[in-house]
Amino acid sequence: MTHLPQLEDLPPLDGKRVLLRADFNVPLDGGEITDDLRIRAALPTIEWLQQHGAHVTACTHLGRPKGKPDPKYSVAPVRARLAELAPGVELLENLRYDAGEEGNDPAFVQSLIKGFDAYVNDAFGASHRAHASIVGPPQFLPSAAGRLLAREVDVLLGLRTEPRRPFVAVLGGSKVSDKLSVIDALLGVVDELVIGGGMCFTFLAAQGQHIGDSLCEPDQIVHCQRLLAQPKPIHLPSDVTALGPNDEVVQLGTTIPNGWKGLDIGPGSAAAFTDVILDARTVFWNGPMGVFEDDRFAAGTRTVAHAMNDTKAFTVVGGGDSAAALAQFDLTDGVDWISTGGGASLELLELGDLPGLQALRGER
């Protein structure tokens, strides 16, 4: 991938107006921000722009208001927090209040860039979407990657091209279909693959295991069998924590009776996965090992989070639920890089490029 334009590549900014596409899609609870990581992550870019005399106006999406104003998705709480962290920065209302954002409407692009002298994309978490605010402005304004976007790309592409070995990927989450293409791509670069979460049960079914009422995607079993037949080691759980028909919670092997549902990896699997992580020199983790929001099924994810914290490997967490789990267990400080974009990190690892990056390079 060719070089992304950096902030230093922009023309002189003293007195100029800069449109900053940020990713302030923060979690809210009753109008209160519960985690401002994504706002704080944009501060290095904002500070650089202000130090160089720019007047910064930020824009972001927030939630899914479906192309029309909805008070539930107002950026007002974000605007208030941004004013505390970065005084002097304006923030436009939710981009997705206009259907032209997700529809990449040229008229919306023109209305967005009107009056601005330059554009900076620091919204890594949205750069896998060909939305108006991501791919439109670079066609008309001098443009650059912000500090966060540039660092995300460096770290994640580094995993594809020059990881310290052994390189281990740990994947979880609910649906194997969401990650099959990523698994295909990762098997070309990792040394070992660890699979937990709800997606592991389709792999166990592919081995001929009886998985009871656990989550399974029967139409993906043949693909999982092909993956299991390739030579790279794929580590699957050897035990699970399951929920029974009368709300019983027990530890089982990988033969699960009908009426029971596996909702977490078991302690033996968690210990085995920890050993793989501790022996690695690079680890990428995306997706919890179980339904960690319920403390009865949080042990597997907690154990993997501690292993990510304890290993001497270079550790990268691919945003989303894995980052939320680290925060829940107060283990974020022990990880080398926590991506601000779960979907974007997976797509960049899979494809090596994103629509937002292509736009910054002037590619259509």
Description:
It contains 15 helices and 16 strands. It has helices at residues 37-41, 43-51, 76-85, 99-102, 106-113, 132-135, 147-161, 180-186, 200-206, 221-229, 267-279, 299-310, 320-328, 342-351, 355-360; strands spanning 17-21, 28-29, 32-33, 55-59, 90-91, 118-121, 143-145, 167-171, 192-195, 234-235, 240-243, 249-252, 261-265, 282-286, 314-317, 337-338. A 6-stranded parallel sheet has the order 10-9-8-14-15-16, with helices on both faces. A 5-stranded parallel sheet has the order 5-4-1-6-7. Strand 8, helix 8 (180-186) and strand 9 form a beta-alpha-beta unit. The model has no long low-confidence stretch (mean pLDDT 95).
Defining traits:
six-stranded parallel sheet, 16 strands, 364 residues, Rossmann fold, alpha/beta, five-stranded parallel sheet
> Would you identify the CATH H-level superfamily of the largest domain?
Phosphoglycerate kinase, N-terminal domain
Tally of DSSP β-strands = 16
Strand sequence of the main sheet, in spatial order? 10-9-8-14-15-16
Measured on Cα atoms, how large is the radius of gyration? Answer: 22 Å
Total helices: the number is 15
Distance separating the two termini: 14 Å
**Domain tally:** 2
